[in-house]
Amino acid sequence: MSWRSQHAVKSALPMTRIAEAVRLLRAGALVAFPTETVYGLGADARNNAAVEKIFRLKGRPVDHPVIVHLPDASHLERWAKNIPDAAYQLAQTFWPGPLTIILQRQQDVPAIVSGGQQTIGLRIPNHPVALELLRAFNDGVAAPSANRFGHISPTTAAHVRDEFGDAVSMILDGGDCEVGIESTIVDLSGFAPRILRPGMISTAEIAAVLKRDVVSGNEIGRETPRVSGSLDAHYAPRSPLQLLSADEIAIQVQRAITSGQCMGVLAIDGRSPELPNIVWQSASGDPKVFAHELYSHMRKLDAQNLSLIIVQQVPKGEKWSAIADRLKRAAAGSGGAE
Ligand code: TXA
Ligand code: MG
Fold first, then answer.
1. Which H/E stretch holds residue 310?
2. Of 197, 148, 184, 98, whose CA–CA distance to 299 is shortest?
């Protein structure tokens, strides 16, 4: 599958907006921008003080590295060293696209960007606004997802405004993010390729390009690096969230009829019981559409101060694995739980 062909669309933003964003980045300010996965909170990756602002605003621990976004693959060697052929093969196949590659970092990369580790995460996003911004900036932009630490990633400019208000100097609006969940992270800095975070580019697709087995981070017997997206509790709404089967949801709905409990339900192709105390969201049975809509659905439900959000367990299988991963972490971190 080509991730490139889907974004033939030109950015609808006037060049003056991009020029203003570049001016702000060069001045050390934060600029939020759309990517095909989620919105990023960007800063000049070579400016320590600017990257520190990201950590302060997100409330993110300083030992969590941030991904550096690049305009094109010719910038790779400025940020990474000892780059294996596998990196070029993946870059060739999937960039621009929803894949982050972890490599050994160049010595002059600011320590705050790599969270004090010897590696760096690099990605070329596939979104016309992001690409215009990066090309005009012509260097690396450090950008985590534009949400407070542990909270749901934003997939619209309005979500970013809800998270940070005026604390971000500029939010470039590029519409809804097409993919909707964060990039796949593959670690090529060590002996064997490892998936640190599943995403819509699957392990099998990566293994097929590399023509070798690719393990996932938890399967290899070595200490997991500090990846905030790999914490058990992450991507979480404020209301408690439970994952249940369709049958279990039906039982909960029956209970809510008598108890009057206010709850939200996100169900695949399910039919709304049309009860005043149940907020029902229908989700798609197509994993791509499900992922595209997931965080918007979760934010809508979370905005209603429900005592419980129930999400239907997604089908098993590779196409759903990144979604299942995010839902599991959302449940673990929901309602302020650890
Ligand atoms: O789709 C995405 O990747 C979005 C868009 C904005 O590009 N970005 C994103 O960034 O999700 P963030 O910071 O929210 O999640 C990136 C994850 C974090 O868990 C971080 O710890 C991990 O990538 N990471 C970054 N650099 C790393 C490194 N050198 N080694 C291990 N993990 C790294
Ligand atoms: Mg994040």
1. strand 308-312
2. 148
| Boundaries of domain holding 87 | 15-219
Query: What total number of domains does the chain contain?
Result: 2
C-alpha 67 to ligand 1 mean position (Å): 5
Ligand 1: which of 227, 235, 329 to mutate, judged by most atoms within 8 Å of the beta carbon?
227
Q: Is residue 227 part of a domain?
A: no
pLDDT digits (tens, 9 = 90+) for 195-209: 999 999 999 999 999
H, E, C per residue of 138-160: CCCEECCECCCCCECCCCCHHHH
Using one digit for the tens of pLDDT, what is the confidence trace for 229-287? 666 667 889 999 999 999 999 999 999 989 999 999 999 977 888 889 999 999 999 99
The closest alpha carbon to 124, from 4, 298, 219, belongs to 4
Is beta strand 308-312 parallel, antiparallel or unpaired with respect to 241-244?
Answer: parallel
- The answer to whether residue 310 is domain-embedded is yes
Q: Are residues 182 and 39 part of one domain?
A: yes
Which atom of ligand 1 is closest in space to residue 114's alpha carbon? 29
Of 86-100, 128-142, 169-183, 232-246, the poorest mean pLDDT is in: 232-246
What is 237-264 written as a DSSP string?
-SS-EEEE-HHHHHHHHHHHHHH---EE
Where do we find the tokens 């938890």?
218
What is the average per-residue pLDDT within 54-65? Answer: 94
For the segment 147-168, the average pLDDT, to the nearest whole number, is 96
